[in-house]
Amino acid sequence: MTENKLIIGTAPDSWGVWFPDDPKQTPWERFLDEVAESGYKWIELGPYGYLPTDPSRLAEELKARDLQISAGTVFTAFHRGVDQWETAWEPARKVAELTAAMGGEHIVVIPAMWRDDVTGEAVESGTLSEKAWHDLFAGHNRLGKTLLEDFGLQQQFHSHADSHVGAQEDIETLLAATDAKYLNLCLDTGHAEYCGASSLDLIKNYPDRIGYLHLKQINPDVLKKVNEENMTWAAANLAGVMTEPPNGLPDLRAVIEAVEALNRPIFGIVEQDMYPVAFDVPMPIAKRTRNYLLSCGSRTAVN
Fold first, then answer.
1. 28-37 long-range contacts, Cβ below 8 Å, gap at least 24?
2. CA distances from 174 to 55, 77, 135, 139 (A)
3. Among candidate residues 216, 213, 195, the one with its CA nearest the CA of residue 262
4. Angstrom distances, CA of residue 75 to CA of 56, 95, 159
5. Which of 33, 152, 170, 190 has the fewest CB atoms below 10 angstroms from its CB?
6. What are the tens digits of pLDDT across the range 115-139?
7. pTM for this entry
């Protein structure tokens, strides 16, 4: 990807996939077929194990549908201490190996959530101590350095609802304390909006740290209810907090205009969080969203 354009792709998440194996989820073959039919060329791996993990098999399946991999995804909890490296690295290594083998260049890294998605009970404090912040910074710098040196991959940190890095201040704290060579942002417009952060301000104030995008929108009326009732992230999704563009916030046309002004190639991956979902729901939404996003920019394309 060498031209200065925003490449629109999609992910298993947009087909209601959150786990490697779940009967409530679209089978992976159907996912790949429908992605191709919807007119996308780039996808993420999704949860490791959802798509085939054998590189030769996956390469064949992708080639048959004219698809390519933009990124893999890993989960970390570095704020819990230096011993978390041992927990995080082996799963991350597997994802990195497969991503690199497929020609991907990015690893999207999602921090652990501080409360149980099902019960809503706090599993740890919702705020971090000075030591925990330091451990978080050190862990992500180490991860980014290892991914780059061992696999040639870029770490793109994904702020997340119900995690310790979601609000604007949290994101800015992370960026100030980490090495831009080893960590940049996967700016998820939906999670940013959910947590009260401004995608446009982040793009404006940290243009060199925007390495990757997840494009999605929040229903502000549902978000108001989520905040009033202190819903978990999973409950918020079931309540419909994510909405199909262009019906919600932030204004993706403005986001795309700001990203195109960065004047460098960047991925914008469509994510429509809706686990669990009926199998016939995702594809029509994916088609409409693709067409809408392509209409938003002069240098926005699918390949």
1. 28/52, 29/61, 30/279, 32/61, 32/62, 32/65, 32/67, 33/65, 34/282, 34/283, 34/286, 35/10, 35/65, 35/67, 35/286, 36/65, 36/66, 36/67, 37/283
2. 34, 14, 11, 12
3. 213
4. 25, 11, 11
5. 152
6. 987 788 899 999 999 999 999 999 9
7. 0.97
DSSP assignment, residue 89?
H
Residue 194: what residue type? Y
Annotate 34-54 with b (16+ C-beta within 10 A) or e (fewer).
Answer: bbbebebbbbbbbbbebbbee
Structure tokens at 142: 């180490």
What burial letters (b/e) apply to 12-22, b meaning 16+ CB within 10 Å? bbbbbbbeeee
Length of the chain: 303
Q: What is the pLDDT of residue 118?
A: 76
Taking CA atoms, 244 is separated from 34, 127, 136, 247, 270, in Å, by 18, 31, 33, 6, 10
Q: State the architecture of 6-301 in CATH terms.
A: Alpha-Beta Barrel (3.20)
- The span from the CA of 110 to the CA of 161, in Å, is 10
CA atoms within 13 A on the CB side of 43: 30
Q: What is the mean pLDDT of residues 156-160?
A: 98
On the question of a cis peptide bond just before residue 207, with omega within 30 degrees of 0, the verdict is no
Report the pLDDT value the prediction gives residue 1, as an integer from 0 to 100. Answer: 56
Q: How many CB atoms lie within 10 A of CB 129?
A: 10
Task: Supply the DSSP symbol for 68.
Answer: E
Task: Please name which of 235, 141, 125 lies closest in space to residue 180, comparing C-alpha atoms.
Answer: 141
**What spatial distance separates the first Cα and last Cα of the chain, rounded to whole Å?**
8
Core vs surface per residue 82-106: b (16+ CB within 10 A) or e: eebbeebbeebeebbbbbbebebbb
Angle subtended at Cα 166 by Cα 165 and Cα 170, rounded to the nearest 5 degrees: 55
